[in-house]
Structures are given as structure tokens and as C-alpha cells.
Amino acid sequence: MRFILGMMVALFAVMAKPLLAQPASDALPQVFLIQNSGWMEPFYSDPQSRFRVLVGALIAQSAPVGSPIVVATFNRSGQAPGIESPQVIYAGPNDPKLVRERIADISIPRKPGGAYVDSDFEEALGKGATRLLRGRPGVIWFVSNNQNAPDGISDGWQNRSEAFTRLLMEAPQFSRVYAHPVRNEVESVQFGRREGFIFYAIAYGKRAGPILDELVAKAGMRTVLGSPLARLRPLDRLTTRFVIDGASQSLSSERDWIKISGDGAAKTLRLKGRVENRLYPFVIRKARLDLAFRVAPSQPGLETLRVSADTRALANVPALGRSGPVTITLELPAVPIEGLMTTERRASGVLTLQLSDIDYEWDRDFLDRLSAIPASGVLSEKAQTQLVASQLPQVFVEPLKVRTSRSDVRLQLIVQRSLWWLWLVIPAMAVGAFALWQRSGQPKKRSSHIVDLGGERKEIKIASGEKLLLSNSSGERFTVKGRGTKAPMVTRSP
Q: Does this model's pTM top 0.85?
């Protein structure tokens, strides 16, 4: 009886088991480092400068109100009495109004002799990560004129600036790097004319990478900056993804996941979609596409899956745009559910989109926007490319040399089956349990029978299944077992 009740409880528990929600991850802190050395003076003093406004707007767009931020200026420590670099001007939950006020109050410190302080990019970035982020994952926004000059105007500042960009591209602790050059012509008496400044967005730590990807992809960020941020790192991976044309109840795509619902039977599935180019500001002029698949050891079952595409070539894929139609064929093996009470099985793996022989070119709008010559429209595209390449930091030119790229898409097959038959079994078990309970709680019905005890006939009353031990007048012993309406069974006992 207890076994039956236990089974009923277990069955209801299986059928009513809720889906576990994924815990929401805490917001990562963001640090905003703003250069305030001598060569930045025109951006602070010229009334035509958009510098302060853009910095304030970027902070407001990047960090939701109340999220943790640190805003600091940077130059070079030790050159101005009592001023260390970076110098925090705001720290705490983001308050856009208060942050704008602190940015409006930024000034450029002077050395004891009266000259403006210089800038040390490595010092600012290093302390931003270790002191302001405390070595924990986070996002660092670095706003500068891209001139790293710890010793002021010297012949070595170009080399120091190139060393800084190499640090961004090679240091293992930086998982993502984006940049956005801003054309803003400003002028001052002391420093003359300046063409613009640059925003770097840096993911410090592996966990910060996807968070930064989401930040720079926000529509509001593009509105503030006027165009998307350029991807500088990584260049050989995460540059493409496969986007399904239309989702359904059995097929969905979310971020870098493709989820397939099925019954576990072997089948051929065709995924119709397009390859998205995520590397701005570069157009895939042409590239070769190859596919591969590897099984996730934690969710086996797709070891024999075969994958192929109906095209091996991509051409003219816009920056942040999509290719022409691509059909990926998946030959799914059978993935049965084992166990009577098991309702679901998941099998997963990684679908790799491998691009080779890539021929990148700059996005035309990007060239038009950054060209310093107003009449650049009359130049050939090759000439304009060379012109812009000569004006931008080398780090913007490097992607043109990339020839291979790999992007992984996580694929998961979800096999489910219903336990609807339990709704029939449970009532039947309940009725059976109730019947047993009733029968066990009532006295057994006895019927009259005449039995032969060694030649002596005797009338007895006995129930079905009941056993009686009887004796005759001679003392012989007999065992009598009731059989319902049939005559009882009589056997001689020793």
C-alpha cells in the first residue's frame, strides 16, 4: 500500500517539475578614463568642441542609471603637485546629471614651471584595471587623442602610441577591443588645430567580452556616436554568425545558439539562413566558407551528425550586414530517450563557421565619414582607402590583412516526450488502492461447506483463502483450505 502511494507521489512530482530559471548575472562595473593632458587643451577650450558632450552622452548610454561606474581623468602622475593619474572625479551608482557636472569641471593641470602635464597611456590603463576595477572583470572606456607622450613633445611619441595599441591587441587580459574615431576639428592658440579624438572600449577579463559586445551593439550607442564602433579584437574569431530566416516552434536562434526540438528520430534538417558579418567597418568582398561540428562531452548523442552547406563562397557581405541565402544541412542521428520516467534529453555540440581566403575592404560610408579632404568623393576608392589608412592609427588597418576567421555556434537538440499516459495510470492506481483498502478493512465473507475428515462428515464455515486445522473423533488432524464457492481442499496433517 505504501509503495503504491509513493509511486503516485513520484509520478506527480515528475509531471509537475518546474523549469529552473537561469540566475541573472550582476552588472559589471565600468571605468571611464578621460585624457586631460596638454595636447587635449583644444578639445576643452574650443567652443566648437563636442568632446565633453559626447563623453557625457556615451557614459549615459553605456551605463544604466544606478549601475556602478568610475569616471577618472588621466595624464601622467608626479608632474603636477598632489595629482595622481588616473584621478577619480566620480565613483558610485551612475547619476547622469552629476556625471555631466563633473565632466564640465575637468581642467588640465600644469607642471610647476607652468607647462601643461603630459600623458602616459600605459599607466592610466594599468591602474584603471588594477586599482579602479580592482583586478576584476569589467569594461574600460579610454578617451584620448591617441598620442601617448609621457615626455611631452618628443621624437618618440609615435613609437609609444604604437606600443600602446600593440598592448591593446596582444595583452591576454583584454578579451575585446573596440574603437570609434571622432572627427572634431578644434583649434587653440597654443596647440593649433586638432582633427579629432578616439574612444576605445576594452573588455578586461573573459567574462566582460560578451557584455561589451552587447553594449556596443545597442541602437542608442550608434545614435550617440553616429555610427557603430569598429571591432579591433578579436579579428580571427567571432566575426560571423549564422542567422536563421524565421524561427518556429521546433527551431529557434538566440545569440550564438541554435536550438532544435524533435522526437529523437533520425532525420535530415535544413537550416535556411544567412551569414552575418559582425566585423565593422569591413566588408567581406569574398571568402571561402567551410563547416565543421564537434560534440559537447557534457551532452553527448550527436557524434555521428554530418553537416554541409549549399554554398562554399561568400561575396559582398556588408559590415554588420548579411550574406545571400545559405542552407546548412544537418543529418541528425537518432537520439532516443532512455528510462521510463525520463521526459527530456539534450544533445549538443559546436557548429563552426570557418572563413578562409578572406578579402576585406573598408565600408564605403566609413571612408566617406573619416576622410579629411572635403572633395574626397572625386577620389578613386583605392586612393581614398590609402588616404584614410594614412590618417588612422595602424590598428585600424590591421584587419585588412586578416585572411581567416572562425566563429562557433552552439547547437542543441532537445528531445522531449509527454507522460500523458500517466494521467490514465494514476486514476487506475488510485481506484485499485482504494479497493484494496476497502477489502483490507472489512471481515472476509464465509460460506458453509460439508467436509470429509477421515470418514467423518462435518459442516464448517470457511472463507476463500482461509485455512482451518480440524480433528475427527479418532484424533486425526486435517488442514482445510477455503476455495470460495468450490469445495474446500482437505489434506491430512501430521
A: no
Total Cβ atoms within 10 A of residue 424 = 9
Nine cell digits for residue 19: 523549469
What are the residue ranges of helices labelled H in 190-342?
A: 208-217, 219-225
Range of the domain at 139: 30-233
Residue 201 in domain = yes
Task: Give me the average pLDDT of each 10-residue run along the chain (494 residues).
Answer: 38 33 57 94 93 96 94 94 94 96 96 92 94 96 87 65 84 93 85 85 95 92 91 87 73 74 87 90 94 92 93 94 93 82 83 93 78 42 58 73 88 75 63 64 74 85 85 85 85 83
Query: Using DSSP, how many helices (H) and how many strands (E) does the chain show?
Result: 11, 22
Does some domain include residue 139? yes
Residues 225 and 259 in one domain: no
Q: Return all residues near 387 (Cβ < 8 A) that are at least 6 apart.
A: 371, 372, 373, 376, 379
Cell of 194: 586638432
Question: Is-cis flag, bond preceding 150, omega within 30?
Answer: no
CA dist 326 and 240 (Å) reads 13
CA gap 144, 199 in Å, rounded:
7
Residue with cell 573619416: 370
